[in-house]
Specification:
transit peptide; alpha/beta; 9% strand; 5-stranded parallel sheet; Small ribosomal subunit protein mS29; structural constituent of ribosome; two-stranded antiparallel ribbon
Length: 549
């Protein structure tokens, strides 16, 4: 059938087709004799030879081509000795005129020591040598800035002196742990305790750094106790500890004789002195631990003053950085599992003393201080410290409640109650948020009842029904029962900052030593006290003395 559309009309509807197609075709000859005009390839840079190239096989080594070493390598233990080097005197510092010393008289009398609160007392030469042997001085404490070692008598020092006075002449044993922020003076407080105990004729034993016991940098070996328990002894560390005990207590140990026979791998004379016994262990690490046990057997034997050489004085034992022995150590057992620090012999003996498992029949004091600069993570110890501090702080609140109850029994109206002590409580002084919130709500409730003049029965009901909760251990976490048992009967004290009176006393000592040239005014004391975090003695020294350097 023919189409109804004209083919010419259909052609007009289509778009025009470009018939001229521009093709770029290059016409070249089959070959050309014209030289190429393309650029030459970039030449590779010559490599600079910095040294002799290694060749396969043997090479010729001449003496003149060997590198010259600038100095000798450090000997074994040289860097550690340099790191622990203590400078206790600065000849360029001024001699403080009228500086009193910590003597036997003022150390044994808490009343005299309290009258010296806020003053700086120096240490005698014999005391300094004993403290140096015990490694009580630490690098970075600023001893080398002054003419001779001295320390501030603060409120905690007076309390420590009272505790030592309570032990003298009795069989009482004080077990105490101090903690606080970095630079609060915990190590210096331990040093003052050692100095006072030494001046009163005590046996002083100090473990300067608990981290050295647990960081797996000294020799150790398993040891089977008579009870069948496996512990790990550290021969070289124990020998070093015995050496420090011998140097610090030489005069006292020389007058004491052994009172019983000991199971030692060597024969002993029947009347050998304790000084000679300690020297044997200090000179031979293989004998160190048996002699360490024999020494403790002698020190914990009953005193017999009527028998020559059988008198046993009180014992002062301290450890700095105690939190390092409240966790697993870096040592491994035969199954490549971490050894708990309480399985190490020295740490085990100290923890038994701290917990009271090992008794001191002649009296003594066990002190421990935590470390805020090298402190590891010890959740169980943190919980125990928080719990004990909360219990002590709540005791003060409960005593205020009892006082208000007695007032309510004899008062006629609510306005007659004296709530000044309750109003003086500040919740920010409580470390536990749980306790701080409870105390704040209780204080506000009692204040509201008194200000609104509510009946006395409402106040009595509020005082009677109030119950305070203390921090509890997380039931989903694993508690270290060994640490919890050791800390059960230990007294805990927090070392706070200095008061402004104490800060002025130590700043005046800095000025008399020539280390502070400005006049010590109330404004300057307040400024430095505030900048030092409310009197942190370490920060106060940095802000006043160290700022010049």
């Amino acid at each position: 059938m023919p189409s109804t559309i004209c083919l010419r009309c259909l052609k007009r509807t289509l778009p025009p087709i470009d018939t001229t197609c521009s093709l770029s075709i290059t016409h070249r000859a089959a070959f050309s004799t014209t030289p190429s005009l393309s650029a030459q390839p970039v030449k590779k840079k010559a490599s600079v030879k910095t040294g002799p190239q290694a060749k396969a096989g043997k090479t010729l080594r001449l003496a003149k081509n060997k590198p010259v070493q600038a100095g000798r390598p450090p000997a074994a233990g040289e860097r550690k000795a340099l790191r622990k080097r203590i400078v206790l005197s600065n000849t360029n510092a001024l001699e403080v005129q009228g500086l009193e010393n910590l003597t036997t008289d003022n150390a044994a009398d808490a009343g005299k020591l309290q009258s010296l609160e806020g003053h700086v007392l120096g240490f005698g030469n014999d005391t300094v040598e004993a403290l140096r042997a015990l490694e009580a001085f630490k690098p970075g404490q600023g001893w080398g800035l002054f003419r001779r070692p001295a320390a501030l008598v603060r409120r905690e020092t007076v309390e420590l002196g009272e505790a030592l006075e309570g032990v003298m002449g009795s069989t009482n044993v004080t077990r105490q742990m101090i903690y606080g922020e970095r630079g609060s003076g915990k190590s210096v407080l331990l040093l003052q305790g050692m100095a006072m105990a030494y001046l009163q004729g005590w046996i002083v034993i100090h473990l300067p750094e608990a981290r050295e016991i647990t960081n797996a940098q000294t020799s150790y070996q398993p040891y089977r106790t008579p009870e069948g328990e496996t512990i790990y002894i550290q021969p070289h560390y124990t020998a070093q500890l015995l050496l420090s005990i011998s140097k610090a207590n030489r005069g006292l140990l020389s007058n004491l004789r052994i009172s019983e026979k000991h199971d030692l791998p060597m024969p002993l004379q029947s009347n050998i002195s304790l000084a000679r016994l300690v020297d044997l262990g200090a000179n031979d690490p293989s004998l160190a631990y048996p002699i360490w046990r024999a020494l403790w057997a002698e020190l914990t034997s009953p005193s017999q003053p009527e028998v020559e050489g059988q008198f046993r004085p009180p014992v002062f034992v301290s450890m700095d950085g105690v939190d390092h022995i409240m966790r697993p150590s870096a040592y491994l057992n035969s199954e490549t599992k971490p050894i708990h620090a309480h399985e190490l012999a020295v740490a085990r003996d100290y923890s038994n003393l701290l917990s009271g498992k090992t008794s001191l029949p002649n009296g003594g004091m066990i002190m421990a201080a935590t470390s805020a600069s090298t402190r590891p993570s010890v959740p169980t110890l943190d919980h125990v410290l928080a719990r004990k501090v909360a219990e002590r702080q709540l005791q003060n609140i409960l005593s205020i409640c009892e006082d208000l109850k007695h007032q309510a029994e004899s008062a006629k109206a609510t306005q007659d109650l004296d709530i000044t002590a309750l109003e003086a409580i500040r919740s920010h002084n409580f470390e536990s948020p749980l306790v701080a919130k409870q105390v704040s709500n209780f204080r506000d409730r009692i204040q509201r009842l008194c200000y609104d003049d509510r009946p006395l029965q409402d106040v009595q009901r509020a005082l009677t029904s109030q119950e305070f909760k203390i921090p509890e251990w997380d039931p989903y976490a694993i508690i270290d029962q060994r640490v919890s048992d050791v800390m059960e009967s230990v007294e805990v004290r927090k070392v706070e900052g200095l008061s402004k009176v104490e800060a002025r006393g130590v700043m005046e000592y800095y000025a008399r030593s020539g280390m502070v040239r400005a006049a010590i005014t109330e404004g300057l004391v307040s400024e430095k006290w505030t900048l030092a975090g409310n009197g942190m003695v370490g920060e106060l020294e940095k802000a006043t003395v160290m700022a010049r350097f």
